[in-house]
Amino acid sequence: xxxxxxxxxxxxxxxxxxxxxxxxxxxxxxxxxxxxxxxxxxxxxxxxxxxxxxxxxxxxxxxxxxxxxxxxxxxxxxxxxxxxxxxxxxxxxxxxxxxxxxxxxxxxxxxxxxxxxxxxxxxxxxxxxxxxxxxxxxxxxxxxxxxxxxxxxxxxxxxxxxxxxxxxxxxxxxxxxxxxxxxxxxxxxxxxxxxxxxxxxxxxxxxxxxxxxxxxxxxxxxxxxxxxxxxxx
Length: 233
What we know:
The chain is α/β, with parallel strands linked by helices. It is built from six helices and ten strands; from the N terminus they run ββαβαβαββαββαβαβ. The protein has helices spanning about 30-40, 60-65, 80-90, 110-120, 160-165, 200-210; strands spanning about 1-5, 15-25, 45-50, 70-75, 95-100, 105, 125-135, 150-155, 180, 215-230. Strands 1, 2, 3, 4, 5, 6, 7, 8, 9 and 10 form a ten-stranded mixed sheet that branches. The protein starts with a strand and ends in a 5-residue tail after the last strand. About 45% of the residues are buried.
């Protein structure tokens, strides 16, 4: 089902959003990643960076931003992998909404504003935007200012969302380019990353998140920059 976001002014910045970034040996990219987060049009967020035992200057770079912006918070994990780092970030976080960003990726400045607007308007448990594949040397090319009245949102119930997820069309089995309501991470059936999985951990997590959700909203805007590079997991 498609519905237009009508009559929506800029959302009030009452809800805290937690951006969780697992960090491991990405010194060439982490600065750009952090910059894209702190330049968000929606300002009420915390940026939680969980270092998983980096051997390069990644953590030092991240800490330099922590000294300049109180919203940036750096932590050290126990080198158990990306799933454990993300889970630690969730435990530390205080946000009403949570999203995950890989340390070599970056965001449109409208990323939080667009996802939160869609979720607040539709009551969705998960909000999704498009993911743009980028090369290491490709410049940022997110286009267009986000105006909620100009876009139609694709709203799905749980079953429809899972059917589309498994088809590989529109939405993919990855935890990035999505925003999650806090309640999905709470209670007896809370979602979490399976720490025994070092690769493809997104698949189980995304399945569990969609299965627990009641509604998923997709906004057809390419606001997440995914970096294709050698050596990435």
